[in-house]
Design a protein that fits this description.
The structure is a homotetramer of 204-residue chains. Chain A is mainly α and 204 residues long. Chain A has seven helices and no strands. The longest helix of chain A is centred in the N-terminal third of the chain and has 35 residues.
């Protein structure tokens, strides 16, 4: 029956549905944070809640970055099918686990929660990359895109957020991590511009 | 007053509303999962959380499959009325119980939760089938559909998800269950193609 | 600044926002229901959860009925302004209290929760009636409607849901309550038709 | 890649996403309110729940006012870019903390929660003002607006809600606070009209 689905309306409903899941996941991040039972003055309040608020801010940034990635990749699509539905559900199913991951982060013991959290973040990136790879190379659901650009988009979403999330935790201990992150962003900027030039050259 | 409702706008608002309920139900599935109080290493963490994550994955799949069914059936509609509102509310009211059903599943004792869970899943399928039966045969709210196809659509959503959900639990104990599930899918594929041929023959 | 708001886009965004609040309130109704700690067999499970599931079903019906009322009244509007925003927020603020009201209902002691719950339901109806009264008679935000019809719409949403909700609790004790409810619906049907005839007569 | 984003579709998806976050935050405000364990009569119920319901009403009003501000400012935009995404995420991240702030408010000790709550409310206003400042003066994302009007819009959302929220708490202790609030609103009304006149003069 999937051939009867009108692709554009289907795509629109898929985007709205995904937005709702992102919005709920991002708002639920805060719902498990409760005020401490005893506190004395604003300073004490923030001292007691600091870790939770940091964990919240990090996860909010993660959801935000993936929402932007998701929006950009869906802007490149022109149609949807059932396989895309399923791949998108995998993405959403992982995003919906972020409130749980955030709780792990603020209750963590001896840094054991960091690899779990980074692993979850990296998995979301891989799931979006898989979705894009299917849409661009197999399902032919994307607007025409030069192959180099399509590969670059896939690799970037697959690797960048997980790498940056992991590096920012590393950087808390080893300050040279910030330099690695800056270098990565500068390198990507350069690659970005190079691929745009190649794509343009192919177009003309 | 229902005759004054402009059917298409009504249908659109009904779809958006349903999407929001599906999205919230799917995201709330994870919210009752909390990290264990004591854990030592990632292996131990997953050993302790394994059952909950499986229950989550199963329910996420169930909501996903029903969202796809719901989307496909509403794609076949061209209008809505108050009776459709009520039938759709029954569907949504059952979907919103899935987080509770999932909790039952991971706290289960001696397999007693399986029939309750499968019963809930089967009820959602029956409710969607009822909605479609009303829309196609009574309320004349659907785009023209050959009768054989309409009956097939109704029976498939009424029976398939509940049956597959039940069989996958059976298959955990009796491995021949997987064979039954595979045979069912192949049989449906064949039926699917046959009905498409009949519908085409009627159209010409 | 409110004069600069383009009314139709404003109205659209208000409807989407309201739908989201209704959808969240309806889905959260179930989230406070947890499985009992000990249960033995499906029969025992339902015996222990019966009251909660009834309370859930009643509140789901209440939200459903008010969603339909809200949709119908907004279908009669052609524009929005800041006053409508505020009145609509009052409606939504009361709807969002329904999960709390439902909890009261299933934890009730000696029937004391019934009047509180019925009061909340009645307040939502009054708030929607106030919104419609403003839109139709003061703000001139509605499509042209004969005055008798506008008054009837206002009175119906102000009184009917609260009355029916209260009567259905009364009917649990005094069975003649069901007869009163049936008579009310028949009477409204008659009034409905009469007003349609008057409106038509005025139009021609 | 941000240059490739089609601004209008991007803006539309950003608005829908923001609405969902506002709607969820506003509905979750009520979810942490539970009925008291023991109560005797409606009077006792409200005596015990009064503070929570007041805190709920205040926060509902805050979210409502900011939703209206957000809607009005986005109505002035014609396009979106990645910087706007990020600034909007900061707004939403603060809005999603309001249920936590509300909990602080009703569990407060010796008025210590008031400055924290007012600080959160003021921060949301500043974040929206920052978003508007970027959109109007840096990113050129707004419909053409006279500079005086743009500055006034920025200052109003930056200062007014936080000031009014703080003053209404002050007024509980010092009744002259109400007079200050009334004077502020009258002054703004006057400023509002003056700026409209200047804008009109510039346009002709």
């Amino acid at each position: 029956m999937s051939d009867q689905d009108s692709g554009a309306g289907h795509l629109h409903r898929l985007v709205l549905f995904s937005d709702a899941v992102f919005a709920i996941a991002i708002t639920l991040l805060a719902i498990e944070i409760h005020p401490p039972h005893h506190w004395n003055g604003i300073r004490d309040l923030f001292a007691q809640m600091g870790v939770k608020l940091w964990a919240y801010a990090i996860s909010f940034a993660v959801v935000g970055i993936y929402w932007i990635s998701h929006r950009r990749i869906f802007q490149r699509l022109r149609s949807a099918n059932v396989v895309l539905d399923v791949l998108n559900f995998i993405v959403l199913g992982l995003v919906a686990l972020l409130p749980l991951g955030t709780e792990l982060l603020w209750e963590q013991r001896a840094g054991q929660a960091f690899p779990v959290y980074v692993g979850l973040v990296a998995l979301i990136g891989l799931a979006i990359a898989l979705l894009w790879a299917y849409a661009a190379f197999v399902g032919k659901l994307a607007h025409p895109t030069p192959k180099a650009e399509a590969v670059y988009v896939m690799l970037r979403v697959a690797l960048l957020p997980g790498f940056m999330c992991g590096m920012s935790f590393v950087s808390l201990v080893y300050p040279w991590g910030w330099a690695v992150m800056a270098a990565t962003l500068v390198g990507l900027q350069w690659l970005n511009r190079r691929i745009a030039r190649v794509s343009q050259a192919q177009a003309t």
